[in-house]
Amino acid sequence: MENMARKEYAALQKGVDKLVGKFGMEKAVKIIDQLSGTSKMRTRQKEQTKLITTFVVSEAFKVFNVTETLKKRVRSLEYREARMASYHLLNKYTELSYKEIGKQFDQGRFGVYYHVKNCSEFLSIPKFNKSFVSRYEVLEENLIQFIAKIN
Questions:
Q1: Residue 142's CB: how many other CB atoms inside 10 A?
Q2: What is the rounded CA–CA span in Å between residue 17 and residue 2?
Q3: Are 82 and 66 within 8 A, CB to CB?
């Protein structure tokens, strides 16, 4: 158990070193504060939230291969998975309410709540949802890079 914790800490340290090397110490601290939710509220918060929301939705459609014709067919698997991943990431990285998140896809707060919980279940058992989890991880990585750039 202790050996596993050491490996995880070493991986964390390596990631922090890469972050500092890429963005510099000051910017890396701001990114970590932003991602951990400890940064102070700024007046730009609303604008950043709009940018993040727009990015997540458009990037989800790209990552999950949702074409223009599939956008009209809301029952397609690609569309549903892109929507579910978007809901989960917006819930995780913004302070938007379920109702505000649902506006992006014309759904109510209960639909968003359902999909966020469903996505959490998919992510908790990655063996059974390999395709979804791999796409979700790509989307999340792209979002983290985007957040780092807008800060």
A1: 17
A2: 22
A3: yes
pLDDT at 18 over 70: yes
Q: Work out whether the CA dihedral 143, 145, 149, 151 comes out positive or negative.
A: positive
User: Which of 53, 74, 71 lies closest to 62, judged by CA?
Assistant: 71
CB-based contact 114:102 (threshold 8 Å): no
Count other C-beta atoms under 10 Å from residue 28's C-beta.
18
Decide: pTM greater than 0.70: yes
The helix, strand and coil proportions of the chain, stated in percent and rounded to the nearest 5, come to 80, 0, 20
What type of residue sits at position 106?
D
Are the C-beta atoms of 139 and 60 separated by less than 8 Å? Answer: yes
Query: Using one digit for the tens of pLDDT, what is the confidence trace for 51-110?
Result: 999 999 999 999 999 887 766 676 788 989 999 999 999 999 888 999 999 998 889 999
